[in-house]
Amino acid sequence: MSTLGPSGLLRDVIDAHGGEAVWNSIDALDAVISASGFLFTAKRRPVLDHVRMRACVREPRFTFLDFPREGFTGELMGNEEVSIMDPEGKVVARRENPRASFRRISRQFVWDDLDFIYFGGYATWNYLTAPFLFLRKGFEFEMLEPLKGEHASWSRLKVKFPQDIPTHSETQVFFFDEHRLLRRIDYTARVVGPWAHAAQLCDDYHDFGGIMAPVRRRVYPLIIGTRPLPWPTLVRLDIHDIRPVLKQP
Asked: Which of 35, 123, 136, 204 could be disulfide-bonded to 216 (CB atoms 3.0-4.6 Å)?
């Protein structure tokens, strides 16, 4: 186990990903992302091909541009609301408390556009803002023993999320390599189901305006123990570009 403790590890992790000063200088991240995988097939959702997105960094707010079709905009406002606006900015669909809709039996078989905006919005917002997300108040951290074997040098941090953050599950485990870069996240995608335990592997780091981020993310089932299954690929996420939006003077 790391002798740093959670606070020391987090300081190193934040620095490794670009540092708090760089993060505090930006308001949002503009990204171009493609996504596919078994989850899209299971929920009858079309894959995403170079879709433009914006993640606010001060609050859980996320926007899909040209989604669900060209000229339209899909927006997530935390756990409170999701909406779709037409090219003129008129709201054509809205759902309050969107997480509650996943309790319906029909959601086991198909997701509509608003369902996807909620799930895809909060999930991608989490991915783009972590680990800087942990600078917010309300998180609880616990160091875990490293796994044995190939990745014994990786640090494991158990994270409990505050209630105001939309995320996969309240408790998740983050893995950081010897360079303090995020390499894996274990969680339960509860809007998919209480059984949806998964491991997300993060690889191929690039520097985007001072922010270090992995451009290749793959999600695999985590059924028993700590070793994810090699198949199926639940989500295949490729990040083509990230552009920090600087704060206005």
From this structure: 204
